[in-house]
Amino acid sequence: MALRTGTKHALVAKEERARLFAMLRRAGDDATLAIEGAAVAVSNLDRVYWPADQRRPAVTKRDFLRYLIANAPSMLGAMRDRPLTLFRWPEGVGGRRVLMKHWEIRLPMFVERANIFSASKGRPDQYILCNNLPTLVWLGHMGTLEFHAWHSRVRAGDDAPAAGVDARSSLQALHASVVEYPDYMLFDIDPFFYAGTETRPKQPVPTPEGFARARRVALSLKALLDGMSLVSFVKTSGKTGLHVVVPIARTLRYDAVRAVARGIGDHLMRAHPREITVDWSVERRTGKVFIDYNMNVRGKSMTVQYSPRGLPGAPVSMPLSWRELQKMDDAALPAFSITTMPRRRVDPWADLAEHTQDLAQRLESSARKR
User: Which fold has domain 7-369?
Assistant: First the structure.
């Protein structure tokens, strides 16, 4: 049976979360949390991860762990069996940032791992997997403020009939393994409209105009995908743009999926040459929306839905319904953060796994219709 990756299948009981909320509320600055049979030691709970600003209160480690527990069903569903690229700010966003792929410290027993062959090193690298609530809480305690997951998973299923499970023994084995088969096609929609206040000259800060342009491009992309009978999902990146995801069966390798994404991106650019670019030159992107299809590569990753970003104000990568995106005000930036995120009864991405599509089959059918 294929593994379920939709958020509603990564269940964490409400009662368990309520119990952990109470423990965090009563705890001093240090505590040991009993989670799913594991003892997770946490410390410095009153450390500020995101400082207060004029509009938002400070977010402490205690607040952040509560946020992770509240959103665990969705986040664990998104990360299950995926190698992770993580960014840590152990002292909070005002301190140093640490990129974590291969952890060299001793890991707790509840942390699952995957070994994946590295062509540059000639041996496997160890990645961690966030497959349970103790791991999610431990990562938060370690100052992991951004969670990025690969587009492929390390375990096989009936949606990947041609793939093996050995990704560690050799480069040949890796290329034949399930890790080489993504389960979604990604379009990273990145507006390049500058406010003039950027501290990093090549990285625009979020602006209403930039997001409005990205929003219109995303809706155009959805219309094109709809015409190809491809179901798609959208979320904010947590920075300036949007991510559009097309869930697919694991029957095509990364290079084939990337070629399809490139064809779609090129088609959209030709239809809207003044608004859209696929050019890698930063200078040529200015004043346009960049569609990055090259993210469809083994080893690259996407910000997990509901993951915060290590930026002032604790913004989050927010899943949206297409209707929500369509109704947004062009004159305002969406304010999705740890402290302002709206309460929802239904997660717009909850049934993503139920919409797995055979991309090759859909393309063939679309070509016959044309």
Answer: DNA primase, PRIM domain (3.90.920)
